[in-house]
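Posted in: Protein Modeling Q&A

I'm a second-year student putting together a small comparison for a lab meeting, and my supervisor asked me to include a predicted structure for Multiple sugar transport system permease protein. I've never done this before, so apologies if this is the wrong subforum. The sequence is pasted below exactly as I got it from our records. If anyone can share the structure token output, I'd also love a short note on what stands out.
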Amino acid sequence: MLSRLSFNSQKKLIIFLFVSVPLLLLLTFAYYPALELFRISFTSWDGLSPDRTWIGWDNYKEVFSNSSIFGVFKHNLAYFVVGIVQNILAIYFAVVLNSKLKGRNFFRLLLFLPYILNGVAVAYLFGYVFDTTNGSLNYLLGQLGFGALSETSWLGNGSFVNYTLASIGLWRFMGFNMVIYLAALQSIPSDLYEAASIDGANGWKQFVHITLPNIYKIIELNLFLTVTGALEVFDLPFVLTKGGPAGASETFVMKIIETAFQFNNYGLASAMSVVLLLFVVIVLSIQRFLLNRKGE
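Accepted answer (user: helix_wrangler)
Welcome! Here is the predicted structure, written out as tokens:
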């Protein structure tokens, strides 16, 4: 059949088929569910009944007026702060391991290895590390002479439980960020550093005036991933603390799932999902504006 068509017609048909199939999949599994989510957010639906009562903006009013819902966002702040530290460490290790360091490939693998581990497995692993009575961290602190710290309940203290959980994310994802920075560093021509050395620029000046400007877009990308991950974190607090103690580590995504599957309020959960999406878009837009303005 194709042989009867002209070459241009065959080319257009093939292009159409290659474009239409992924576009159809995108519309079916991305855009349609998003539109349906937005529509459900204006209803009072329990997830089972065929009747979906239209209630307008009541769900959105509930999200912003109920401090137990919208106030959960403050728990995500710890993940954002630790995420910034994570990127700083990733840049440092990328610079170090981009040099002619003996055994650098081994250290690259060692730092990247946590990223390939399953998130639930990592959570259970650190459950033993942070255990109050038999945890390896408290045992180590006790052996080093830090008696007071060796009895700390790292996952039971509401003041810093989110930072404890975020530190696990730092251990797991820092290597991934490092690999991205390392790839960016290897794309910088070595002639620039040689010329800077001839001009008398030390390592710090080379980093500020050569390295940072050349990896600026990669920093923006990693910050995008960091902010998105900080706002959408779920697996670590769900496995380790179930949102405790007393809801101190409950994240917004956990609140959405609880609202939908425990309280069967799919309308409110859909509104919360839309708010989360808008919040992510707003935060990332502000980040992009500030970084582009600084970059210029």
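A couple of things worth pointing out for your meeting: The domain at 67-295 is CATH 1.10.3720.10 (MetI-like fold). DSSP finds 14 helices and two strands in the chain.
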